[in-house]
Amino acid sequence: MTTDIPGTGSPDASTDKAGPARRRTSILVLDDEPIVCKRLKPFFQKAGYEVEAYNVPAEALARVEERRFDVVITDLKMEGLDGLAFLGKVKALHPDTDVIVITGFATMETARESFRKGVFDFVAKPFKLAEILDGVRRIEKERGLAQ
Amino acid sequence: MGDKTASRSPGGETGPGSARFLLRTFKRILGLNTRVLERMAQMDRALGGEYVFDKAFLESAVRDVCGLTHRVAYHLNGMAQEGYVDLYDAFLSVKDALEDILAGGMGPLAGRRTLPFSEIGLEMEPLVGLMSVGLAVLGRRMGLPAPDGLAVTVTGMRDLAGGAREEIREEVLAEIRDGVKALHKRLGGVKLLTLSLVAAGHEGAGRVLAEVWAGTAEEAAKAVLQLAETYAPGSGGGTGADPKASAPVGDLPLAVCLRQGVEAPVRGTLMTLAHDPSLPPAMLAVAHQAGQPADMAGDRYWLSRTAPHIPLRSRIAPKPLDVPLSGGRALDPSLGRSLRGSALLTPRAAGILAELGLAAERALGGPCRVAWALTQGGGLWLTGLEPATREGETGSAGSEEPEASQWSQWEGGDDSNALSAPEDILAQGGQVACGGVGAGPVTLIDDDTQPESVPLGAIGVARAATPGLSRIVPRLGALLAEVGTAASHLATVARENRVPALFGLKGVRSLEPGTMVTVDAFDGAVYRGVAESLLRQSAIQETRVGSEPEFLVLRRLLRHIRPLNLVDPKDCGFDPAHCRTFHDIIHFAHEKAVELLLSIDASGRSGLGSPRRFQGDSPFALGIVDLGGGLSPGESRGKSAGKGDVTLDQVESLPLRAFLEGLMLRNVRREAPARLSLGDIVAGMGRTSQALAEQPGSAGLNLAVAARDYANITLRLGYHFSVVDAVVSERPEHTFVYFRFAGGFADDDRRARRAGLILAVLTRLGFRASRQGDLVVGKRKLLETNEALEVLRFLGALSAYTRQLDVELASEEDVERFSREFLNVVGLDAAGDAASSSDAVAGKADEAAGQGGEYR
Predict the structure, then answer these.
(1) Mean of the per-residue pLDDT values of chain B
(2) Which of A53, A97, B211, B233 has the fewest C-beta atoms lying within 10 Å of its C-beta?
(3) Using CA atoms, how far apart are residues B844 and B856, in angstroms rounded to an integer?
(4) What is the distance between the alpha carbons of residues A104 and B608, in angstroms, rounded to a whole number?
(5) pLDDT of amino acid A146
(6) pLDDT given for residue B240 in this prediction
(7) Residue contacts between A and B (CB atoms, under 8 Å)
(8) In this structure, how many other beta carbons lie within 10 angstroms of the beta carbon of residue B468?
(9) A chain contacts of residue B546, beta-carbon cutoff 8 Å
(10) What was the pLDDT predicted at A64?
(11) For residues B585 and B267, what is the distance between their CA atoms, to the nearest angstrom?
């Protein structure tokens, strides 16, 4: 399950329309389960966010090396690159990017480790869309991002 | 099955077989059942799009329900001394099927080449295709007019395809011939058969690729062979060289649906969800005359999705002057050489068709395209099923449906002016058992309601959400119940059938039957009339249900988990061998666990410990054994209480206390074998109870075994014997009250009359009760706490009232008179609703407690 969803690897076309005064909060979603990306991308787009979604950790990593995102939402257990390692690289590149970790294998240990690495929130699968939107909105509030 | 309770090994006070063990294990089963139902509900909600989930969720969900269900079977066997070991077989069969699905397999019947409709369930769609599944479920399970038939499975078609060994092909053809002969036998002779080649497989494509007809079994077998060869690999439609690769027609596995052909002058299709930018979400029916030239347009009717499904728009095609019309003759046939404005479908027939379509949609889990036929006699038949044409796709051959337009044009396109106003709210609250919006006429239903008597699309209103209503659910537009929770058996059935449902909605039984209402289960509200805008929003949401592989796998998994096939405990098929799903297993275990609990032999007192004598104003002596939390610790505070005696104040068992409160009502007692009027009863108040004079040793005859939430009360008064068994829980689905009564002193007739009286009163109290000779058995399940306690007070009062009454029942008139008298005394009228009599006895019991055991 490492195929990117068609069309998800490029920035949302609607980004260009947003003026500098009302910049949209940018989100990168990384999960090697395509269904998660398929659900999250349109949901956040409809809620007014700029979204890119990836199934392949290496591609997502290449993208964060190219540009900064306001929020990164990443799975923890993935083939190729561990979510915690990805989290570490994101924070090293962009310390002010907030990361939300989603995982189906939530244990206290992984949660602790995630928070030690600077994760903003930790959401266990299965989760409701409202739960993850709530996490993103809290980030926006704390960072003073426009929505 | 034999008696599972006959030989319990002595296990001391707490070991296997003891009352404490049974109660403890029973509670474990209830708790596990709830957890299974909650896990099912979570899977349901995931399927409905509420959660973001992945394959790992599916695996963990299956692991959990397997583990929990296994423990249910284990504990039931613990209670029954391993009397239901075959439940493990049923469990393993379902578990294997689930693991097979997770591994990408076809299910336990994957090896079968043909399957009659009677063996086909919803979970078999990848094996037999959507059409066979749909017709089998709609016709046999829901009782809708759909033809009988059989399916040639994906396996059968693979073995028939070119390249298969000749003897294997012959075997398959022989199976088809046998299957068709059996079908003809069921149909009463050789009948014309319709054969549809459908795309099956994991993707559940469901498309119809070809349709042919046949008569005899030989013709049918040849036709199937021809279809297999035509669409086999290397024959134009095929792709691979390996015939075992089940990959003809561009990787799509194939199946054939053979069913009875329906001769009809008018036939057509119905799209259950039609897209038209100028209309709200509607249904589109297309009607043709039989034999009509292919290029001639048919009638089109855009029907409202809400009963009575009025046509929102129609386009009636011109017809020859001599065409027969189902609605009668045309009013004015003289307008040129064609009939104009004369429809093939009457509004009534269109309404019935729409309801059939919605039923199909609910059963199949999404919008679909139904083929139908209107017979000469006016009967409507479902003759075929396909998934709805997706946006941008071309429908099957001959499809007349327009290209789908964008739903988004409707989203927000409607202002909220049509939303129901607050004054239109008829009921509000309850728990969401299944989200969604439905509208239709109110129809009161209960366990005795025959499914056929419920109009399709009706809003079913029940007192309690009992599993017995399962058979009615697929016919409903929405379901309301005064008692019930979202983690109940019936809630699962409602979600399985996608019938919007609200449980725990107080007072909803007072809705006038026939009133048109709209149920918005998402919002917990019932509105007067048809709220079109709510229905529209709901229809838009339903089109967004996921189609990713994980959703398809989850849907298939749930088909082995949540359908409830075992509904009636009295049915001869209510046994482990008929448990096809985990829901069946836990429901079976629940019912049997209740039975086993009922069989606690309190009178034998084996392993129960010493009873404490009840020191209250009871008409007879009673011993009480505490199983835990039933009695407060410490000595009795009563003046006349001896050491170890118990007063009512010390009874902490909710069900026992309520029973005793009813039992102690002196004005319902019958102290002497004489005919009593109400005046006699009043005059009798204050008499010293004979029972108080009885020796403590006789307490062994009457014994209550009690825990905080449980009581088993065995009364052996004179020559009669009664048992009350009750669990009173905060969860209505765990609460039940059972009452059993037998025996007596008088002759057979008089004893039978007393049994008749008890039966009448139990029925009046809302029990499902039955009588055989002088044995009366009554059950009430799914009760709120207060209601259950109220019922127990009535039973206490009834026990006191009917004591030795048999000798007075000289005639049937006496039965009626005494039952009326009892109901009057306890504050119930004979014809009223037991549920509405809340607190009738409770109030009197309070008064009794405050006024020396009497009320005035």
Answers:
(1) 77
(2) B211
(3) 9
(4) 47
(5) 60
(6) 36
(7) 47
(8) 22
(9) 35, 39
(10) 94
(11) 42
Residue B762 in tokens? 């139990």
Tell if the CB–CB gap between B53 and A40 is shorter than 8 Å: no
CB within 8 A of B852, min separation 6: which ones? none
Lowest mean pLDDT among A3-17, B262-276, B568-582, B754-768: A3-17
Interchain pair A36, B54: CB under 8 A: yes
State the DSSP H helix or E strand holding residue B483, giving kind and residue range, or none if neither: strand B476-483
3-state secondary structure of B451: helix
Express each pLDDT in B331-345 by its tens digit: 555 555 665 666 788
- Top mean pLDDT of B163-167, B417-421, B702-706 is at B702-706
Cα separation, B715 vs B699, in Å, equals: 10
For residue B43, what are the contacts with CB-CB under 8 A and spacing of at least 6?
B61, B65, B554, B557, B558, B561, B562
Domains (range + CATH), chain A: 25-137 (3.40.50.2300)
* pLDDT digit string, tens, across residues B293-336: 666 678 889 988 877 788 888 887 776 666 666 555 555 555 55
Residue B94: band (very low, low, confident or very high) from pLDDT cuts 50, 70, 90: very high
Regarding the domain with residue range B428-539, which homologous superfamily does it belong to in the CATH classification? Phosphohistidine domain (3.50.30.10)
pTM: 0.67
Tokens of B9: 């090994």
CB-CB neighbours of B428 under 10 Å:
16
CATH number for region B266-320+340-389: 3.30.470.20
Chain A residue whose CA is closest to B42: A126
In terms of Cβ atoms closer than 10 Å to its own Cβ (0-12, 13-18, 19+), residue B247 is buried
Rounded CA-CA distance B342/B331 in Å is: 9
Cross-chain residue pair B52–A127, CB shorter than 8 Å:
yes
**What are the tokens at B201?**
């497989």
What separation, in Å, do the N-terminal and C-terminal C-alpha atoms of chain A show?
33
CB B715 within 8 A of CB B721: yes
**Using the beta-carbon criterion (under 8 Å), do A35 and B549 form an inter-chain contact?**
yes
Residues of B in contact with A127 (CB under 8 A): 51-52
* Chain A residues whose beta carbon lies within 8 Å of the beta carbon of residue B548: 34-35, 38
Chain A residues whose C-beta sits inside 8 Å of any chain B C-beta = 31, 33-36, 38-40, 77, 102, 104-105, 125-129, 132
Gap between the Cα atoms of B645 and B148, Å rounded: 68
Out of B50, B60, B548, whose CB is closest to A35? B548
Q: Name residue, tokens 């379902």.
A: B94
d(CA B586, CA B377): 45
Residue B411: list chain A partners with CB under 8 A. none
- Indicate if the pLDDT at residue B552 is higher than 50: yes
Chain A CB contacts of B60 below 8 Å? 104
B549 neighbourhood in chain A, CB within 8 Å: 35
Instruction: Return the half-sphere exposure (C-beta side, CA atoms, 13 A cut-off) of residue B763.
Output: 15
DSSP string, chain A: --PPPTT-SS--GGGGGS-GGGPPPEEEEE-SSHHHHHHHHHHHHHTT-EEEEES-HHHHHHHHHH---SEEEEESS-SSS-HHHHHHHHHHH-TT-EEEEEESS--HHHHHHHHHTT-SEEEESSEEHHHHHHHHHHHHHHHT---
Which of A1, A37, A39 has the most B C-beta neighbours within 10 Å, making it the best mutation to test the interface with B? Answer: A39
Residue A38 pLDDT: 85
> What is the predicted pLDDT for the residue at A2?
36
Tens of pLDDT, residues B575-595: 999 999 999 999 999 889 888
**Residues A26 and A69 sit within 8 Å (Cβ to Cβ):** yes
Give the span between the Cα atoms of B792 and B663, in whole angstroms. 9
Give, rounded to a whole angstrom, the gap between the first and last alpha carbons of chain B: 52
Structure tokens given for A47: 């809620």
